[in-house]
Every structure is written in structure tokens, then in C-alpha cells.
Design goal:
Elements: H1 3-22, H2 27-76
Length: 81
């Protein structure tokens, strides 16, 4: 990178950083952004809870089903339980 290109890059970076300071959000816009982020976080938590509860229910169903199969097998082979 030549010195001229480096100076141009530095000036471009300074201009880009300087323009970000001018694009500040108003109080209402900042509040809306915070509420949107909070709503998205709640949505993610809800999905996570639904997935956890569904998987928990499926695990219990497998355990109960396996127990029923074992009990039926034992009854079928002469054990009176």
C-alpha cells in the first residue's frame, strides 16, 4: 500500500466514523428499538420453552411406552404382575 493510498484510506475511515455521530436516533426511535429487541428476546425465550417442554414430554412418553412394553412382555411370558 502506497503512502497516498494509506492517507486516502485513513481519510475515508475518519469520514465514515464522523458521519455516524450525526445519525443519532431520537428518544422515541431509541425506545422503539429497545422494545423491538425486547420483543424479539421474549419470542426467542418462548420458542426455547416450547421446545424444552415438548422434548421433555417426548422423553416421558418413550419411558412410559418402554415400561408398558416390558410389562406386556412379562405378562405374556407367564409372570403375573
Amino acid at each position: 500500500m502506497s503512502p497516498e493510498e494509506r492517507k486516502e484510506l485513513i481519510s475515508d475511515i475518519v469520514c465514515a466514523i464522523g458521519s455516524n455521530n450525526q445519525a443519532m436516533l431520537s428518544e422515541e426511535e431509541a425506545r422503539w428499538v429497545k422494545m423491538a429487541i425486547q420483543r424479539e428476546a421474549q419470542s426467542i425465550e418462548l420458542r426455547k420453552a416450547i421446545i424444552e417442554k415438548t422434548l421433555g414430554g417426548l422423553v416421558w412418553a418413550v419411558i412410559v411406552g418402554a415400561g408398558y412394553l416390558v410389562l406386556d412382555f412379562l405378562r405374556g411370558h407367564g409372570f403375573n404382575l
